[in-house]
Amino acid sequence: MTTSKKELRLYYKNLRAAFSENVIEEKSLAIANSLIQLPIWDKTYYHVFLPIVEQKEIDTEFILHLLSGKDKEIVISKSDFETREMTHFLLTDNTKIKKNEYNIPEPVNGLPVPVENIEVVFVPLLAFDVFGNRIGYGKGFYDNFLAKCKPETIKIGLSFFESVKQIDDVFESDIKLDYCVTPEKIYTFK
Fold first, then answer.
1. Which CATH class, in words, describes the domain spanning 5-188?
2. How far is 184 from 180, CA to CA, in rounded Å?
3. Rounded to an integer, what distance in angstroms lies between the CA atom of residue 133 and that of residue 31?
4. Which positions make up the binding site for ATP?
5. Which residues are documented as binding site for substrate?
6. Which pLDDT tens digits describe the chain residue by residue (190 residues)?
7. Which residues does the annotation place in the binding site?
8. What are the sequence ranges of the domains in the chain?
9. pTM exceeds cut of 0.85
10. Rounded to an integer, what distance in angstroms lies between the CA atom of residue 49 and that of residue 41?
């Protein structure tokens, strides 16, 4: 199998599209349960993506419950499609969530959180390799965001699928993951 970003993106989008709601729920729960084993629970600010249900992304509801049960500060984002930048907000009981034109659930309002406060980022992706390189949708939102994070910010990919051997067309500017968690396994890249 070729391993260009474009081909891997299409391949894994199609694989994921075949998943039923039950499969997504089971795999998402397995990922959340594995996260408990990571050495990340001494931090305060955790950034979590809210899934695009129509794209059959990982359901992060289980992770949100885990974080609130541990009394962590949960950060969610709003995307600006002109600048490809994300702004970050604290998720509270009063946060109103609304889907944007791309079906991404986003906060309507809230308390802004500076990117330098964020200590752990759960990163959505379509595929990743054994070196910690990831493939998203190709819009660069997470690359821009992760580039602004402090070097010690922990980046954790979440994937329904196991790693590929190598992604061929990786750029030097691509930010590598520290971990990737799948329903079966935890990959460590540090």
1. alpha beta
2. 11
3. 19
4. 5-9, 134-142
5. 52, 57
6. 557 888 999 999 999 999 999 999 999 999 999 999 999 999 999 999 999 999 999 999 999 999 999 999 999 999 999 998 999 999 999 999 999 999 999 999 899 999 999 999 999 999 999 999 999 887 889 999 999 999 999 999 999 999 999 998 887 778 899 999 999 999 999 7
7. 5-9, 52, 57, 134-142
8. 5-188
9. yes
10. 18
